[in-house]
Amino acid sequence: MSKNENTITTEESTDADPKTTDEKLISTEVTTGTETGRTAAGGRTIIEARNVDVYYDDLRALDDVSLQIPEGQVTAMIGPSGCGKSTFLRCINRMNDLVDAARVEGDLLLKNKNVYDDDVDPVALRRRVGMVFQEPNPFPKSIYDNVAYGRRIQGLDGDMDEAVEQALRRAALWDEVKDQLDKSGLDLSGGQQQRLCIARAIAVDPEVVLMDEPASALDPIATSKIEDLIDELAEEYTVVIVTHNMQQAARISDKTAVFLTGGELIEFGDTEKIFENPEHQRVEDYITGKFG
Ligand SMILES: Nc1ncnc2c1ncn2[C@@H]1O[C@H](COP(=O)(O)OP(=O)(O)OP(=O)(O)O)[C@@H](O)[C@H]1O
Ligand SMILES: [Mg+2]
Residue 13: its pLDDT value, please? Predict the structure, then answer.
């Protein structure tokens, strides 16, 4: 809300235009990502989609999506179930390659290089663009081996103990597991498992971390830990997160992309603007829970 909209005269303006009294469509109570100062980093574009369509056989899951995701920030993807959020995320690190029916058209650039070019190795790409899924999915291995796994298959040299510790620290899990690194990752709580998966993803030093509803299977305390962690991660990485939770998107992201049914990107911009004063009525209706 801009300053001049805020001029209220002597009386309580109970009959004022709801747009001005209603201030935020969603009450966030906390600052949005844009207010944290991360934007000061410059926010160069790291990922750019140009006219991306995705089909599963004949079904069009994404419809002409173009957007530019800034580096070193948190970008949230929101929208109703089935609108293509996960599909978009999976385009970025070519996870859709693993789905036989999927076909991607258009350009998807990572640092100005099309990730679908013939000379791009998807395995190397996925080292640069890590992913965390909705259900925590640790391997049936020790905590240590879960975190070390990616570095081993990538043949990353260096002190493995140090790298494992660093990743677990950055994932805010080290203090809870440092004395039981040999324990199976599957024996951790759901929230710990998800932080283990985040540690596994960041252990290979990716540039981007994709998260597909990383907290939706967790209780409020574990969710809040993951949100704090995302805030920390954004100091080092670009984070792109899908969430169904509007308050979460408003709390943690700098930019928000709103997809609607049919795989269309309806609006993309600063999170504050999307939540306080969106351009499109359909976005406002979605955010305020009128559908979706
Ligand atoms: N592997 C697949 N094969 C066929 N169709 C798929 C596949 N994955 C997704 N789809 C279809 O593509 C569309 C977009 O799905 P997607 O999973 O990207 O949506 P979403 O926005 O992530 O939904 P949700 O919020 O429920 O996770 C849906 O119509 C879905 O049924
Ligand atoms: Mg999904």
Answer: 40
| Ligand 1 centre distance from Cα of residue 82 (Å) | 5
**Do 62 and 263 contact (CB within 8 A), yes or no?**
yes
Q: How confident is the model at residue 28 (pLDDT cuts 50, 70, 90)?
A: very low
What is the domain class of 72-83+123-287 according to CATH?
alpha beta
The rounded Å distance from CA 264 to ligand 1 centre is: 13
Amino acid making up residue 10: T
Average pLDDT of the chain?
A: 87
Among protein residues, the one whose CA lies closest to atom 2 of ligand 1: 56
Contact 280, 266 (CB under 8 A): yes
Q: In the chain, where are the structural domains located?
A: 72-83+123-287
CA of residue 87 to ligand 1 center, whole Å: 6
CA atoms within a 13 Å half-sphere pointing along the CA-CB vector of 108 = 25
Q: Is the pLDDT of residue 17 over 60?
A: no
* Predicted pLDDT of residue 157: 80
256 pocket-lining for ligand 1 (C-beta < 6 Å): no
pLDDT of 6 strictly over 80: no
Distance CA 289, CA 26 (A): 10
State residue 69's pLDDT score. Answer: 98
Number of H helices, E strands in the chain: 11, 10
Q: What is the pTM of this model?
A: 0.87
Q: Whose CA is nearest to atom 25 of ligand 1?
A: 81
Query: What is the SS3 assignment for 75?
Result: strand
Ligand 1 close to Cβ of residue 99 (< 6 A): yes
